[in-house]
Amino acid sequence: MFEIIPPEHPLRPGAEAVIRAAFLRDHGAVLADLPRLLVAEHDGGVIRCAASLRFAADGFFSERYLDAPIEQLVTRHAGIRAMRGDLAEVGSLAAARPGAVCPLVGGIITLLRRQGVRWAFFTATARLRTLLRRADIPLIELAAADAARITHAERWGGYYRQDPRVMLVGDYMVAAPFPPACPPERLRHA
Question: Which InterPro entries does the UniProt entry name for this protein (predicted)?
């Protein structure tokens, strides 16, 4: 079940634990504070996959990797004029297994569409980019994520050795409803 998790939500500790454990396990990263809004896919309260969401009013973490404001890059790369309110950032995606990602991504897409968000962007490792492409999500690359652009890069462990890049996807680029097909065999080895 897809769940929106603000700070006071009873599933918040579990969602944060899944994110922190995955980043520690996969990258040796010790994440500091997580964004105010999380989303999760759970089964009876057991978190299978979680991520963070940021909207314009929250500030965008991945924007620090960019040489221009995100809305200008959307216009430049997609040829469609964008406003900051048209955008959301997805971050800290973490799952116990790759197959758990698709239902969460589907829930995020549905939520953002209902909110009127036309563009989502995120920083993705090579592995995550492969997984999303196998799920038929077309991606526009905006920039490499350079550790020199953040403070306390050492807290991220080996994350920056995983070729993270800032990616963009437009609502019109994703089939509705999503996922049209997200079989586990397509996501294995991502």
Answer: T_hemolysin
Structure tokens at 59: 């500030």
What does the domain layout of the chain look like in residue ranges?
2-187
Number of other CB atoms surrounding residue 7 within 10 Å: 11
- The rounded distance, in Å, linking the Cα atoms of 88 and 175 is 18
Whole-structure pTM over 0.85, yes or no?
A: yes
Q: What CATH number belongs to 2-187?
A: 3.40.630.30
Q: How far apart are CA 187 and CA 134, in angstroms?
A: 6
Q: 62-107 pLDDT, tens per residue? A: 999 999 999 999 999 999 899 999 999 999 999 877 678 888 988 9
Euclidean distance between CA atoms 190 and 187, whole angstroms = 6
SS3 letters across the chain: CEEEECCCCCCHHHHHHHHHHHHHHHHCCCCCCCCCEEEEEEECCEEEEEEEEEEHHHCCHHHHHCCCCHHHHHHHHHCCCCCHHHEEEEEEEEECCHHHHHHHHHHHHHHHHHCCCCEEEEEECHHHHHHHHHCCCCCEEEEECCHHHCCCHHHHCCHHHHCCEEEEEEHHHCCCCCCCCCCHHHHCCC
What are the structure tokens assigned to 115, written together? 């909110």
> Could you tell me if 139 and 105 are in contact, meaning their C-beta atoms sit under 8 angstroms apart?
no
CB 5 within 8 A of CB 45: no
